[in-house]
């Protein structure tokens, strides 16, 4: 009888564990950079720009990439009409230049950043890293959220759109 009781308890344990909620490892990444941005409300302007610049397939590629992602507020802070003009088909080259200036080949975590470091962007020009008061800046944009990992790189959210030298 004691053996049957033990078997019943063991069976109930297995049944209960089969219905227990599964937790995901927080380090598992199941989204590329584009999917990550699409799922983030405050990056919707960036997503629209990436689509208009035909860069979706590039940023869904193998990478790795480091993306300095300006928020919707960062785009809204540009002079009136700037975003609308960049999104026009005739300005696609300018749009692509601006967007690729926010992308660096390779995966650069915030712990890899050094004060005064220069990083060459996909656009071809370099951005400058400044570390001050515990914050990282890329040119004149402050990193507001760092090290958001995607399966093909990393995203650092910034508070300004950085413009390449023209």
What are the key terms here?
166 residues, FAS1 domain, 7 strands, 33% helix, disordered N terminus
Would you write up a description of this structure?
Helix content is 33%, strand content 23%. The chain contains seven helices and seven strands; from the N terminus they run ααααβαααββββββ. Strand 6 (141-150) and strand 7 form a beta hairpin. Helix 3 (44-52) packs across helix 7. The protein is globular, with a radius of gyration of 22 Å. Mean pLDDT is 85; it is low at 1-28.
Condensed summary:
The protein is α+β, with helices and mostly antiparallel strands. Helix content is about 35%, strand content about 25%.
Largest sheet: 7 strands, mixed
Mean pLDDT rating:
85
Task: List the secondary-structure elements in sequence, H or E.
Answer: HHHHEHHHEEEEEE
Category by helix and strand content: alpha+beta
Tell me, what's the shape? Answer: globular
Total domain units: 1
* Rg, Å, rounded: 22 Å
- Residue share in helices? 25-40%
Number of strands: 7
């Amino acid at each position: 009888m004691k053996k049957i009781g033990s078997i019943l308890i063991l069976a109930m344990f297995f049944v209960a564990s089969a219905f227990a909620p599964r937790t995901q490892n927080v380090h598992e990444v199941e989204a590329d950079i584009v999917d990550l941005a699409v799922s983030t409300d405050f990056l919707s302007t960036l997503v629209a720009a990436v689509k208009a610049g035909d860069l979706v397939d590039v940023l869904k590629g193998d990478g790795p990439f480091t993306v300095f992602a300006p928020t919707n507020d960062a785009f809204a802070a540009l002079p009136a009409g700037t975003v609308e003009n960049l999104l026009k088909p005739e300005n696609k080259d300018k749009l692509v230049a601006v967007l690729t200036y926010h992308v660096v080949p390779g995966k650069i975590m915030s712990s890899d950043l050094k004060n005064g470091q220069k990083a060459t962007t996909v656009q071809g020009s370099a951005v400058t890293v400044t570390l001050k008061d515990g914050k990282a800046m890329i040119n004149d944009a402050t990193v507001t959220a760092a090290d958001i990992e995607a399966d093909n790189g990393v995203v650092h959210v910034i508070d300004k759109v950085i413009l390449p030298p023209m």
